[in-house]
Design brief:
The chain has about 550 residues and is an alpha/beta fold. About 35% of the residues lie in helices and about 25% in strands. It has 17 helices and 27 strands. The strands form seven sheets. A nine-stranded mixed sheet has the order 2-1-13-12-14-15-16-17-18, with helices on both faces. A five-stranded parallel sheet has the order 4-3-5-8-9, with helices on both faces. The longest helix is centred in the N-terminal third of the chain and has 18 residues. The radius of gyration is 23 Å and the shape is globular. It binds ligand J2J. The site of ligand J2J has 23 residues, from helix 8, strand 16, strand 21 and strand 22.
């Protein structure tokens, strides 16, 4: 793996010095957030998971015990631990315990399967994998067994920790031990690895430092005016960057508020929790916001405590944005963020036109945002172009990915987001589209190349191209165009094959089109724009 490059690309010294001087980087590891909230807000409720509750002080103390349990197991600073949990309190305990230890969580999603989890474990040389016993009708212990079998005996993976019934594995409950003194991890070192939505054959991992992430959390909490009275419903998958840090779980705990974990985001689950716990703020992806507005027509009474609904992850239509206040009775905040760093918010005191028609502006006065043409020349405000950015919480390189980094970052360190945006006066951004080869399935990101590689592994597939097709509910779904090698295989057979590859469900093509050849661009590449138009036309003709 050394051949693939550095674990992380540090900011040049002059930038680091500037970010420290400005007070963004404070030299504090992320677990300090809990130490501080325990000191300031000790007896207040910090976390609610079903019938279980922790105060800030209890949470901080329990994290000490879990960290000690991890040490007793043999885990140490610098170790990678793949974390795949649904929205349960143990996620929060594990994350802070790993931070405290200086070990690095690798954030997997509950939707991930053998192919993804085995890759995360082997690529990061993870020492441990933490999973739930069962969730959503799926047994994660059997997934863990498959992963162990695939990695083999020589893998670094020595511990499987299970929340719930552990069977032959280590139970999360057994991590409880008398607290031990631990040296504080370096704040300018890595805190965790987050997943990139990606556009490449293998998902890229995003190395974030304590310093940079802590800043984005503090600043986000301030922008959202969080305080000890704030109660946040975490209905999106906890491990995603949005509910974790924008301002999410970390921001709310930092402010002394309370995090309520919802096992899923359906109105039937979420609305009663909002009512029972007096939730003031939550975050959703656009398709869920639509579902909530549908349900609120008859159940608005349950939402009376809700002050702010944040929506992000994919583009919210102006039409839907306009309905949030009248239908849900709370304010809308648009959030345009990325796990690589840059996060934009509309602000509380913005005029309606900005809240409804833009995806907000950057967190920091030191976020550098450029909108450029295909040749990296800056465009004037109002013209759509590629969004490039660098700043105090945007990475300078992916984890062990030198070759990709040379393409994904400019020579002077701007991250090429792959988003097409228009900038308005005041720095407000409107997301107009995407340059990257990705499908945004209502916030779930699908890298076309990753799916194409799996399709190409099928003996009957000569060539494959995966593109986005419009969808009224998710915004986009995926369509796989396939050139068969000989006789056309059955679409069902391709679907079965893809399921057996062990991929997250959301990556499976929503539609398959068999063709004899692909349209090509002038330089001989597959013309994906033509394919997108082809399927879009077919869909609208069918309507
Ligand atoms: C259009 N596209 C959007 C939006 C993200 C906060 C909120 C979201 C994410 C996230 C995040 C969008 N309108 N409002 O990490 O902290 C698309 C863009 C972007 C990509 C990043 C956060 N909000 N997007 O979604 O890493 O294409 O982060 O580059 O999953 O989602 O995806 P991800």
């Amino acid at each position: 793996s050394a051949a693939e490059g550095a674990d992380f690309t540090p900011w040049p010294a002059e930038f680091a010095a500037r970010y420290r001087e400005a007070g963004y980087w404070r030299g504090e590891p992320l677990d300090q957030l809990l130490r501080d909230s325990a000191r300031r807000h000790g007896p207040r409720t910090a976390l609610v998971c079903g019938a279980r509750r922790w105060t800030h002080a209890e949470l901080d103390a329990q994290v000490d015990r879990v960290a000690a349990g991890l040490v007793r197991l043999g885990l140490a600073a610098g170790d990678k631990v793949v974390l795949q949990l649904p929205n349960v309190a143990e996620f929060v305990l594990a994350v802070f315990a790993l931070f405290r230890l200086g070990a690095l969580p690798v954030f997997a999603l509950p939707a991930h399967r053998r192919s993804e989890i085995a890759y995360f474990c082997s690529f990061t040389e993870a020492r441990a994998l933490i999973v739930a016993d069962r969730h959503g009708g799926f047994d994660y212990r059997s997934l863990a067994r498959e992963v162990c079998a695939e990695l083999g005996d020589k893998a670094a993976l020595t511990h499987i920790i299970v929340v719930g019934e552990a069977e032959e594995f280590t139970s999360f409950v057994a991590l409880d031990a008398e607290p031990v003194a631990l040296p504080a991890p370096a704040a300018d070192g890595l805190a965790f690895l987050q997943l990139s939505g990606g556009s490449t054959g293998r998902p890229k991992l995003i190395p974030r430092t304590h310093d940079d992430y802590y800043y984005s959390v503090r600043a986000s909490a301030e922008i959202c005016a969080l305080d000890a009275e704030s109660t946040y419903l975490c209905a999106l998958p906890v491990a995603h960057n949005f509910p974790m840090s924008s301002p999410g779980i970390l921001g709310v705990l930092h402010a002394g508020g309370c995090v309520v974990l919802a096992p899923d985001a359906s109105p039937d689950t979420a609305f009663p929790l909002i009512e029972r716990e007096g939730v003031t703020i939550t975050s959703l992806v656009p398709p869920l916001a639509l579902v909530w507005m549908e349900a609120a027509a008859t159940r608005r009474g349950e939402l009376s405590s809700l002050r702010l609904l944040q929506v992000g992850g994919s583009r919210l239509s102006d039409e839907a944005a306009r309905r949030v206040l009248p239908v849900l009775g709370c304010h809308l905040q648009q959030v345009f963020g990325m796990a690589e760093g840059l996060v934009n918010y509309t602000r509380d005191d913005d005029e309606d036109a900005l809240v409804i028609g833009t995806q907000g502006r950057a967190i920091s006065p030191d976020d550098e945002v450029r909108v450029v043409d295909d040749d990296d020349r800056d465009l004037p405000d109002g013209e759509a172009g590629h969004l490039l950015t660098r700043g105090p919480y945007t990475i300078r390189g992916y984890f062990r990915a030198d070759v990709h980094n040379a393409r994904a970052f400019t020579a002077d360190g701007f991250y090429r987001t792959g988003d097409i945006v228009r900038r308005l006066p005041g720095g407000y951004l409107v997301v107009e589209g995407r340059g990257k080869d990705q499908i945004n399935r209502g916030g779930d990101k699908v890298a076309a190349e990753e799916v194409e590689n799996h399709l190409l592994a099928h003996p009957a597939v000569l060539d494959a191209a995966v593109v986005a097709m419009p969808d009224a509910y998710l915004g986009e779904r995926s369509c796989a165009f396939i050139v068969p090698r000989g006789e056309i295989p059955r679409a069902m057979e391709i679907a079965r094959f893809m399921r057996e590859r062990g991929l997250a469900q959301f990556k499976l093509p929503d539609r398959i089109e068999f063709v004899t050849h692909f349209p090509k661009t002038g330089v001989g590449k597959i013309d994906k724009r033509a394919l997108r138009e082809q399927v879009a036309q077919k869909l609208s003709a069918a309507r």
